[in-house]
Amino acid sequence: MKITIFGTGYVGLVTGACLADVGHEVLCMDVDPEKIDKLRNGIIPIYEPGLESIVSHNVSAGRLLFSTDTEEAVAHGEVQFIAVGTPPDEDGSADLQYVLAVARSIGQHMTGYKVVVDKSTVPVGTADKVAGALRAELDKRGEELDFDVVSNPEFLKEGAAVADFMKPDRIIVGTDSEKAEGILREVYYPFNRNHDRMIFMDVRSAELTKYAANAMLATKISFMNEVSNLAERLGADIESVRRGIGSDPRIGYHFIYPGCGYGGSCFPKDVTALSRTARDCDYEARLLNAVEAVNMAQKHVLFDKVSHYFGGDLQGKTIALWGLAFKPNTDDMREASSRVLMESLWKAGARVQAYDPEAMKETQRIYGEEPGLQLCGTKEQALKGADALVICTEWKEFRLPDFEVISEALSHPVVFDGRNLYEPEMLERHGLVYYAIGRGRNQFSANGS
Ligand code: UDX
Question: Which atom of ligand 1 is nearest to the CA of 218?
Answer without folding.
Answer: 21
